[in-house]
Amino acid sequence: MTQFTDLGLAKPLLKALADEGYTQPTPIQAQAIPGVMAGRDLLGIAQTGTGKTAAFALPILHRLAEDRRPAPRRSARVLVLSPTRELATQIGESFKAYGRHLGISVAVVFGGVKYGGQMRALAGGVDVLVATPGRLLDHLQEKSMTLEGVETFVLDEADQMLDMGFIVPIRRIVKFLPKRRQNLFFSATMPAEIEALTGEILNPNPLKVSVTPQATTVERINQKVLFVEQQRKRALLAELFDDASFKRVIVFTRTKRGADRVARGLEQVGIDAAAIHGDKSQGQRERALAAFKAGDVRALVATDIAARGIDIDAVSHVVQFELPNVPEAYVHRIGRTARAGADGSAVAFCADDERGLLKDIEKVTRQRIPSFDRRNDRHLGAATAAMPEPTRAERPERTQGGRPQGGRAQGSRGQGQAQPHRGEHKPKPNRNHSAPKPGHRHEGGPARAAEGQKADGYRGPRRRRRRGAGGGQGASA
């Protein structure tokens, strides 16, 4: 079996790898490192979590160590483009960790923070610059830096760049690069527009490395789809956290406001949660990630901006509160678990209006995801274990930390005794026989409509069951 010592890497790099506890390269590392060390261009097709950061960082650092010379002022010898701040930060940390015995300088540039510190870091030149496209273009237009000294250009997560609308900025950045350079191009999928971009950036006859078929999902991930009514999703999400195995969970939503609402809903039932999305400041995002890594919060609710920007070991579950509009994003979302050789689980909620999205996902990933219908307890997937609905009396209560306990959560009404739910009293008769006013208590009120189910188990107004609407018993909320 191949060892890192067999790849011809510089001794300081081998020492840093030993410090990290790494001895055997992953498939993409074993295939990519020798070619990149030899100076070839590379086209790498690899899912997130396969070790591709080291696949380009290690040979780049080796070449820098072999050719010691100062970086040009206000420029860099290596440029790595990343779609998100979080991913850029993690790539920068990887370069620093692997190059700790080489004396390599690394700078990370992204938006959401002031320019001053970044300009000072770039003034004397750096060996490795990791940047997001938007902020890098700002620096280039302000002439606070140039790319004339770049010897190696890395484009990471190219397909996410496409999804986020960065293709035009990338083409603009490439025009600032010198013609003679080494190019490393990484993408988890290869849609037509990305394939066209490779033809523009890569030199002829690049080394091609594909460690997994396009858009397949990691085999170690136990996947499941739960069919559920849209209005019951929050109750079902809270119910999942009754399972103690949901220790460190990332919950994905489509929108920023949706992420905030889901995080608040979890907090209301005693589950520590934090939201992360594009409207959060850099400080807020860093604090949320730090709390999640430290285990201070059990759930991190994120939009797709974090689908490839979170590299945290020991994520036990990924929950897709809403299915993504782009099928390939499903692969990147569930790739947040089962990292570093570990196993993981992914649960996706699917409402009736999302069935088309599920069909697209199964078509792209070439698999039938085991499914279970929470609306009427009808088992749909042979590979999925039955998930019986606990009664209210059987369901454990949650504490402020979200762990199942025997008693009521702190702040609940009463001391473990059954309490009537608000909204279940008999409404006063309406003398005008007109519709009740908005916010009337038996309707749940505007606050309940906006925030969903509360910790006391409120489900909203009782409605007469229509015959043939779903059949059987629905999920308890």
UniProtKB/TrEMBL annotation:
PROSITE patterns: HELICASE_ATP_BIND_1, HELICASE_CTER, Q_MOTIF
Domain Helicase ATP-binding: 33-208
Bias-annotated ranges (Low complexity): 410-420
One of the protein's GO biological processes: response to temperature stimulus
GO cellular component: cytosol
Enzyme class, spelled out: hydrolase
Catalytic activity entry: ATP + H2O = ADP + phosphate + H(+)
Keyword Cytoplasm tagged: yes
Stored InterPro entries: DEAD/DEAH_box_helicase_dom, DEAD/DEAH_RhlB, DEAD_box_RNA_helicase, Helicase_ATP-bd, Helicase_C-like, P-loop_NTPase, RNA_helicase_DEAD_Q_motif
Biased composition (Basic and acidic residues): 369-380, 391-400, 441-459
Gene Ontology MF term list: ATP binding; hydrolase activity; nucleic acid binding; RNA helicase activity
Tagged with keyword tRNA-binding: no
Limits of the DEAD-box RNA helicase Q domain: 2-30
Region feature (Disordered): 369-477
Motif Q motif: chain residues: 2-30
Name of the featured protein: DEAD-box ATP-dependent RNA helicase RhpA
Keyword list, A-Z: ATP-binding, Cytoplasm, Helicase, Hydrolase, Nucleotide-binding
Family recorded in the similarity comment: Belongs to the DEAD box helicase family.
Record EC number: 3.6.4.13
Lineage: Bacteria, Pseudomonadati, Pseudomonadota, Alphaproteobacteria, Caulobacterales
Gene3D superfamilies to which the protein is assigned, alphabetical: P-loop containing nucleotide triphosphate hydrolases
UniProt domain Helicase C-terminal: residue ranges: 220-380
SUPFAM superfamilies: P-loop containing nucleoside triphosphate hydrolases
